[in-house]
Every structure is written in structure tokens, then in C-alpha cells.
């Protein structure tokens, strides 16, 4: 009997090359999808963090700045160690603090940043704590004359608080008297402020509506002509914290300043708001023309 051996055949060289080529194409497509998903995830994380930071800082600044000029002389919680009648007049007439308002601390006050640099804003009010949450030696429920200052240090928006009575030389500092600043938000590219002012003689009534917006260096002349700040416009430019490279980063125009052109090809987002200083407006409405 004649036996036939089973014939076995392998892949040809052409088949192997075609298989390798198809495998490379599929692997390349998978890698491309993974890379794309990673970039998308980082971009989404950067957008989310910037949005969260922007909403937080705008909300916080609004809640704190809106209280500028507040002084309730009838409040049972107001500390009365000093003449609150005179203090009431001072706070109501100085809701926005300017450099030189306090002789012993002439650097405290609102300033206009040079050549588009970030601004600094300082306000006065009656409160239970300063912007850092410090009581500055007062009892838990006591209210006192507070001065809060907001400014950018490097890439960080910070605030520091003061006892207004210490600034005026009426008492010595008690507790947290170093006036060290605390961080409010990081990755700040620029911070700008405009001041909406009113003048009852210019408006011809007691509406206390803003008749214009000016920078901090223009305020002394406004105040000298019996004007007063009744609104604030703030703008802040934040940088995303994720490592995302973006080509053709756009320029940003914050309020009246020239366009800001970030040097880094990262995600940036601009936030703006207008804050009416209701305490000052009510005070101006009560004044006779």
C-alpha cells in the first residue's frame, strides 16, 4: 500500500508583510486615539479648573467688595472703644482707600499698575473679620473698622487685612499684626480694576448713578471735587493649570488696558464683573445737592 504524506504550507513572505503592515496601521490608529484622548482629557481638566477658579474668585471678590463703605453705628456688635461717630464719617467718606490715607502706613491703598501691570484695590468697612478671617484681637461677635487690600504677587492674587484703628494710629496692633497676605487664587496673569464714580452736582439729583469709570490714579481729583466711588469693575485673566499646549493663543483686553498677549501657549480665560457699592450709593442718596 502506498502512503501519502500530509502536505503542510506556511505563510508566504508577501502574506507576512501584509499582516505586519495591517498590524502597524491598527496599532498606529490605537495610539493616535489614546494620545488624542489624553490631550482632550487634559484640555477638559484645564478648562474645568480655570472655570472653577474664575467663578470662585469672582464670587468671593463680589461678596467682599460689595461691603465697601458699610458702617452701622447702631449695630449692637460694634466695638465702641473709640469714637464711632467720627469713625462712621471716615468709613463712609473713604470706602476706597488710597495711598497716603493713613500717615503711618502710606503704602496701603488702591493703585494703578504701571504699563498694564496688575492693579491693587483697598476698601474699608465694618466687619467681624478681615479678608483673611482674622479677628485682630477683637471678641468673636464684635465688629470693627476693617481695611482689606487685594493685589497680585507674582502669579497669585492675595489679600491682607488691617485694623483701621491701627492704621489711623489710634491703637497698637493686637494679634496677626504682621499683616501677612494670604493666597486667594493662583495662576493669575493679570488683574484690573476700574472705579465708577458719581457726583450729585454733576448728575443734578441724588440718584448716585455712576457718571464715569476711572483708574485709581484719577481718584484723588474725583474725590477732591466732591465725587465718590459707587461701583467697581474688576477683570481677571487666569491661566489653566494643566499641561496643555495651545497654538495661536489669543490676546485679551481687560477693561481699559491695552491687549494682554500671554507668552505661554496655554489655556487662558478672562472673567469680568461690575459690583455696585450699595452702602456708598445709599450714603450719597442721603446727601443734599
UniProtKB/TrEMBL annotation:
Record bears the keyword Membrane: yes
NCBIfam families on file: IV_pilin_GFxxxE (TIGR02532)
Annotated transmembrane regions: 12-35
Protein name according to UniProt: Type IV pilus assembly protein PilW
Keyword Signal assigned: no
One Pfam entry name: PilW
PROSITE patterns membership: PROKAR_NTER_METHYL
Lineage: Bacteria, Pseudomonadati, Pseudomonadota, Gammaproteobacteria, Alteromonadales
Record keywords: Membrane, Transmembrane, Transmembrane helix
Amino acid at each position: 500500500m502506498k502512503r501519502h504524506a500530509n502536505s503542510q504550507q506556511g505563510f508566504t513572505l508577501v502574506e507576512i508583510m501584509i499582516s505586519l503592515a495591517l498590524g502597524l496601521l491598527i496599532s498606529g490608529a490605537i495610539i493616535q486615539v489614546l494620545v488624542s484622548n489624553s490631550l482632550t482629557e487634559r484640555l477638559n481638566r484645564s478648562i474645568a479648573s480655570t472655570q472653577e477658579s474664575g467663578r470662585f474668585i469672582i464670587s468671593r471678590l463680589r461678596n467682599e467688595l460689595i461691603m465697601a463703605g458699610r458702617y452701622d453705628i447702631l449695630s449692637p456688635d460694634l466695638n465702641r472703644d473709640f469714637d464711632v461717630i467720627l469713625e462712621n464719617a471716615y468709613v463712609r467718606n473713604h470706602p476706597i482707600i488710597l495711598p497716603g490715607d493713613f500717615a503711618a502706613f502710606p503704602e496701603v491703598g488702591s493703585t494703578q499698575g504701571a504699563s498694564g501691570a496688575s492693579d491693587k484695590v483697598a476698601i474699608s468697612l465694618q466687619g467681624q473679620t478681615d479678608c483673611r478671617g482674622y479677628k485682630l484681637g477683637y471678641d468673636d461677635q464684635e465688629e470693627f473698622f476693617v481695611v482689606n487690600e487685594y493685589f497680585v504677587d507674582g502669579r497669585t492674587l492675595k489679600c491682607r487685612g488691617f485694623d483701621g484703628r491701627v492704621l489711623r494710629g489710634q491703637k497698637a496692633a493686637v494679634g496677626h499684626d504682621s499683616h501677612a497676605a494670604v493666597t486667594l487664587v493662583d495662576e493669575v496673569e493679570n488683574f484690573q480694576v476700574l472705579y465708577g464714580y458719581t457726583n450729585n452736582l454733576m448728575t443734578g439729583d441724588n440718584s448716585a448713578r455712576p457718571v464715569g469709570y476711572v483708574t485709581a490714579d484719577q481718584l484723588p481729583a474725583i474725590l477732591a471735587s466732591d465725587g465718590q466711588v459707587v461701583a467697581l469693575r474688576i477683570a481677571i485673566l487666569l491661566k489653566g493649570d494643566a499641561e496643555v499646549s495651545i497654538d495661536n493663543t489669543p490676546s485679551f483686553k481687560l477693561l481699559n488696558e491695552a491687549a494682554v498677549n500671554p507668552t505661554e501657549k496655554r489655556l487662558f480665560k478672562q472673567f469680568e464683573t461690575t459690583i455696585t457699592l450699595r452702602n456708598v450709593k445709599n450714603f450719597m442718596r442721603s446727601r443734599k445737592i
